Amino acid sequence: xxxxxxxxPAEVGLSAARLARVDSWRDALVDSGRLAGATTLVxxxxxxAHLGCSGMADMARGVxxxxxxxxxxxxxTKPLTSVAAMMLxxxxxxxxxxxxxxxxxxxxxxxxxxGGSRGSFETVPAVRNITVRDLLTHTAGLTYxxxxxxxxxxxxxxxxxxFQTSDRTLAEVVATAATLPLLAQPGAExxxxxxxxxxxxxxAVLSGQDFGAFMAERILAPLGMxxxxxxxxxxxxSRLAANYRRGGDGRPALIDDPxxxxxxxxxxxxxxxxxxxxxxxxxxxxxxxxxNRGELEGTRLLGRKTVELMMSNHLRGDMAAMGQPxxxxxxxxxxxxxxxxxxxLDPARAQIIGTPGECAWGGAASTAFWVDPVEELAVIxxxxxxxxxxxxxxxxxxxxxxxxxxx
Length: 407
Description:
Residues 25-392 form the Beta-lactamase-related domain. This protein is an alpha+beta fold. It contains twelve helices and 17 strands.
């Protein structure tokens, strides 16, 4: 689904001259060779006031970046998976404090890593069961094998607990994860993790439907997100961007050719933590849905109070108070976490311009979004550069967008 601007910046309280700084910033990233291409979108008061594209979606083939370019959004999948779970919550299928063992018995009798070496390590019993809220907030004690920070991460790699590359089923990978020790006691720490993939499996179990099918039928189709899915069909493959990393010369180096990509064919696992591809036109529809508190163009998937609950901080303080100095798609100071995305608590402590209550997340290929209910603002950045920590794109874009508000 393509998209066009719907309002002049001044009509929605933005300065056109100041908003033009976003274009200059994006063009400079491409002209300097840091990014192959990028797209930015700013929506305020329900109308798109800025949409810009720079550079190439596929450098080798000379395909320009366009508004209908399809991107790997990776962890920007997580908020949609969380919406899927909360739809079932509204149907009375579970309560947030329910132990997941009620539905996923494989997580019974969990133990927590307590030290030792790869060949000989110690564990202690978990003091309580993982709850559904723990999965939604990344406080379940789970981790990611990609962290490369401790013994538990290594066990994930050894046992192929990877929802992107494994050729096993979603249920099989979750079952393996449940045999491994937790990184921390449930509820004790915020650790970025496979929790949202486990949540996707929970959605499948509770609904009795394949998770990918549930997402397509219950969320993507009703929201009109026609170009969003877990793989790119052949007729749309020409619109899939290439994925890059920063090469030795500082310029983009290809890591995933769109024509040969694993995303170009159906995948064994529909990863709720990071499997979706999307366009800026599709994802802004999801942003509208959030800002409208669960409704889009007459279609309501969630009640207003449920979305407000999701956008509330569910941690004891900010992520710095509960988190560990490990990778995240967000900074830790002044930032809390709701049910599926980060929540701004204190812009001064976060040392970045923003608004308390603003919700955000990003993906591994440097994509990002945030929605600000107070300012009635949504911003999307789509590009394809891994890892997302290569450049401070999100913080830079945040300043450029907020400084353009004049009303």
